[in-house]
Specification:
Elements: E1 19-21, E2 24-29, E3 35-36, H1 38-51, E4 55-58, E5 64-69, H2 72-81, E6 96-98, H3 112-124, E7 137-140, E8 153-158, E9 176-181, E10 184-190, H4 192-209, H5 221-232, E11 256-259, E12 265-269, E13 275-277, H6 278-286, E14 291-293, E15 299-304, H7 306-316, E16 332-334, H8 348-357, E17 366-369, E18 383-387, E19 393-397
Parallel strand pairs: 6-7, 7-8, 16-17, 17-18
Antiparallel strand pairs: 1-2, 2-5, 3-14, 4-5, 4-13, 8-9, 9-10, 11-12, 12-15, 14-15, 18-19
Helix pairs in contact: 1-2, 1-6, 3-4, 4-5
Amino acid sequence: MNQPARPAADRCPGVFDTHPAADGALARVRLPGGRIRPDQLELLARAAAEHADGHLELTVRGNLQVRGITDVEAVAEAVVAAGLAPSSTHDKVRNIELSPLTGRIGGIADARPLAAALDDALRADPAAASLSGRFLFGIDDGRGDIAARRPDACAVIRAGSSVATDPPLTADTPLVADIVIGGVPVGSATGSEAIVRALIAVAAGLREVAPGAWRVRDLDADSRHRLADLAASSLDPVIGDDPDAAPDVTREPLVGWFDQDDGAVLLGAVVELGRLAARLAEFIAAVQAPVVFTPDREILLCDLDEGVAETVVRVLAPMGLIFDAASPWASVSCCVGAPGCSSAHAPVRDDLMARVQDGDPVDEREHWVGCARGCGSPAGSHLSVQATPEGGYERRRR
């Protein structure tokens, strides 16, 4: 069912505009593509330890949250010092999901430069500052993982007539991408600049056809058609084999030991309740390796040699970093629940912890929430376990 444009102001939190949660101020730190340098992670962990609840929360968009903040200004200063909030005016609009393994394992091309170019373009566009903090961009390197999440505006890299895949793509080969709006391909663009322009144009088109809408899914059918027509007017025809087919991606947890295409090692891990303790985050930063947070709340340590990877597992597993894909924590997630959220009907974290400790098998992805808002719910199919005002939980597959 189509939703109407939202009449209320978007209160999505950022670094400079925090949310007054029941357990204190909450700041959300955008990490375009989920990427963060070790020095940035160390500064953010220190801020969480000194001025908040001592944890970094992993979000469903590959971002980080700092809860229970006692000194908002100090946390903001730390985030700025780390280079994680390069623009106060565009802080909340830098929502870019990127194929987590791109440039390291599989994919048609390394999409990291494209995500960086989109972030630069967003911050350079004054009009983008008015975009809702909930609008989501996606960069899919051709494997379908991000397209399957239905971002508002997504670029899906394709192997088309102007992109040769045999031999493999090189840095000089122009990218070709289908531009997908809310899951529907509307055209294709060639070259990074054209792809970025097309994605920015989708956001501008949303503001034009429905100024009060937060996301594409807020639009009625007529507005969606108008938005698609606006975007398609400057694009080439779609080059995907079956543009009307939904991506069919069976995704296993990115948890464990993975061999990168260049021979290095990538380690994937999760943490209980999606809460990364500041001390553990500091140890991860000490590895001095690139870190990626995925939209499924996984933590990827990249570009490791084998000896370092073995040491990381030996040292950090006892500290709470879970490298076992069979762990229930690779398949369950939750919102903060009570008492951290005044809307929650139950202590969701405590109840989920008890559910995992009971030892009952987790046969599908589960997300536990304290109310009907369903904060942090996965984009894909999952079992929603929602607390009710009367007590107990209601289970629904979504």
